[in-house]
Amino acid sequence: MDRASILGDAIEYLKELLQKINDLHNELESTPSTSSLPPSSTATTPTSFHPFDTHTAYLTFSIKEELCPSSLPSPNSQSARVEVKLREGRAVNVHMFCARRPGLLLSAMRALDGLGLDIQQAVISCFNGFAMDIFRAE
User: Where's it mainly located (predicted)?
Assistant: First the structure.
């Protein structure tokens, strides 16, 4: 397969996923909640499974705990870290963490390209700083 057909397939797949998300969102909006039912019908019928109704308080708490900036270390107070681990052959793993700034990803990719590294898998996160994990670069 050439790159154009792979890209076309990826675009079609993303469109399908977006359509499924929209369908599920519409289904959730159209589902009547148990609070809109009369009190007599809720007392006689068994409670149906509504994952968003039963776990909303827990999910809100856990998301707040994960995203609360006061509980996370500030990347500005930490120095930049770069770790490189050699693997078999000429392969390396690279882990980089530093404060987030505009253009950092582009400059990091240019530096890696300047080293002649062929990156096969990478995970990049810009949440609470900038982190890049490169697995298997040669």
Answer: nucleus
E strands, the chain, are 81-86, 92-98, 119-125, 130-137
Complete DSSP assignment for 120-135? EEEEEE-TTSEEEEEE
With beta carbons less than 8 A apart as the criterion, state whether 138 and 121 touch: no
Q: Rounded to an integer, what distance in angstroms lies between the CA atom of residue 130 and that of residue 98?
A: 5
The residue ranges of DSSP E strands in 13-137, in sequence order, are 81-86, 92-98, 119-125, 130-137
Q: Which structure tokens are listed for 86? A: 């050699």
Asked if pLDDT for residue 27 goes beyond 80, the answer is yes
pLDDT one-digit tens code per residue, 74-118: 555 667 888 888 888 888 888 888 888 888 888 888 888 888 888
CA 55 centroid distance within chain: 21
